[in-house]
Amino acid sequence: MPTPALFLDRDGIFNEVVFRDGGHHSPRNWQEVKHYPLEGLITLKQFGIKLVMITNQPDIERKIICESFVTELHEYYKTTYQLDNIYMCPFSSNDHPLKKPNPGMFLLAKKELNIDLSQSFHLGDTERDTIAAARCGISTILWTRNYNKELKSDFRVSCVQEIVDLISRRLYLRV
Ligand SMILES: [Mg+2]
Which of left, alpha, beta for 54 (phi over 0: left; psi -120 to 50: alpha)? Predict the structure, then answer.
């Protein structure tokens, strides 16, 4: 039977974004990685909710970020947060079907992990995330940061406990 998932964006959710040249970017090496604490989300797994990271990393194709660093970082996140899988798009073209806001990575996860998208949530920090998830019928949650206050989404949160409360309430779980 298909199960719900919490899809998680990476930059701005697992780690802080790096402000550089007037924009926010991905960390390029371990020195630039500042983790946000997300351990509290692991509790969702006991209710059969899959945790799945979905991330664009176009700087890999642009040769700005080394893929081996991204692989190491993702191995760390997968182990630390018991993620069911990580989907990463290394391509820079906005036309690529895997690159958010296109739905490719969500559709792949649905197929490979047997996920019920209509019962699932996406936690992100940018409009690209909410558009991609909404296109797949996934409920959108924005983690409020000082750079996303104007964006629209189904829900907003500002701490891990709020996420757990929100999802357990919506799926009628007894957490
Ligand atoms: Mg992000």
Answer: beta
- Verify whether residue 9 is a known catalytic residue: yes
CATH of 5-115+131-140+155-170, one of 3.40.30.10, 3.40.50.1000, 2.60.40.60, 2.60.40.790: 3.40.50.1000
C-alpha distance from residue 117 to each of 87, 128, 172 (Å)? 16, 18, 17
Q: pLDDT (tens digit, 9 = 90+) per residue, 139-152? A: 999 999 999 999 99
Which sequence spans correspond to the domains of the chain? 5-115+131-140+155-170
Residue 95 is a catalytic residue:
no
Residue from 11, 84, 125, 129 carrying the catalytic annotation: 11
Give the whole-angstrom CA distance, residue 109 versus residue 17: 25
Distance 28 CA to ligand 1 centre (A): 15
Q: Which pTM was predicted?
A: 0.95
C-alpha to C-alpha distance for 103 and 111, rounded to whole angstroms? 13
pLDDT at position 172: 81
d(CA 24, ligand 1 centre) in Å: 9
